[in-house]
Amino acid sequence: MGFSQALCLLLLVFSNTLLVWGCYTSIFSFGDSLADTGNLLNSEANTSPLILHPPYGETYFHRPTGRASDGRLIIDYIAQSVGLPLLSPYLGNHGSEDFRQGVNFAVVGATALDAAFLNERDIVPSTNNSLEIVTIFSKLHYFLWARSEEMIFEQRNVEEILTLVPKVIDTIYSAIKMLIDNGAVTLVVPGNLPIGCSAAYLSIYESQNKDDYDPLTGCLNWLNQFSKYHNKLFQQELDRLRKLYLHITIIYADFYNPAMQIYQSPAGLGFIKGALTACCGGGGPYNYNVSAKCGNQGASTCDDPSMFVSWDGTHLTEAAYRWIASSLLRGPFTTPRFSSSCLSAVACKI
Q1: How would residue 232 be classed by pLDDT, with cut points 50, 70 and 90?
Q2: CATH code for the domain in which residue 260 is found
Q3: Which are the catalytic amino acids?
Q4: Residues pairing with 89 in the sheet
């Protein structure tokens, strides 16, 4: 989920590109809680995950929609910025006509490594969804996001975590090759967020050693180094793919540095309540309590989520996602950059 789980894939499929980026008539999305817009809501009728209850969704939708935030996600901002509607979840009660401009297959808990691999190592994924689901698409243009952190949330030691990262990268590498071999011509693959700034990880790995923390941001250095390590390996593999497929556009989207801009200067960007404390939670130094998570009894919600970066300790607020989306759409954080001619008037308001 969001910051809390990785080994995941988030995939946006753009169709009908005109140039390198071009303008798009539809988006198809795969992934986990960074992109789920309602599939979990429609897939687990016999369970009651916290994100399906208030206060989730309170800011923009004024009701829970299955999104792991108080409002919109990055995928929502991207869709709106290219003039498309918010993506309907595939598992919703929709007819095929609802999918002409795209559909969202992302579901909370999706992983890059399959459930069997994780279970062998006592790492329990939230769902049994993995990269295998991408085989249903071919001849489309892909926006691919990948992360690598689930074993961290399971409190694995640093050495074990680092040894698994290449396996995660290999899985995603194979998925990208499969997509290209099935006709994909444009792929966008973001790297990891700075997970050392997550309220959940800051709580789980709280340290008495001041040297463990970045004096400017308060984030845990070793966890952010992990994110950098993942991103470095990931970009190396993307370079290898670009050499193999000269006719394919493979774009790396940098999530790490736009997020770090927030953590380095939260007040200057409007996050006046700070960057590390969760808006919704059950207390503690970072307002993250595993016994009273957001949505549980014992948890409370801040008055204005837009003043916070962290929503529930493992996911970000709509305001933080807006900043990251804006940075990707208009800043130097995608290579090649988004075509400004493709962005709608809505993008200017993000």
Answers
A1: very high
A2: 3.40.50
A3: 33, 312, 315
A4: 104
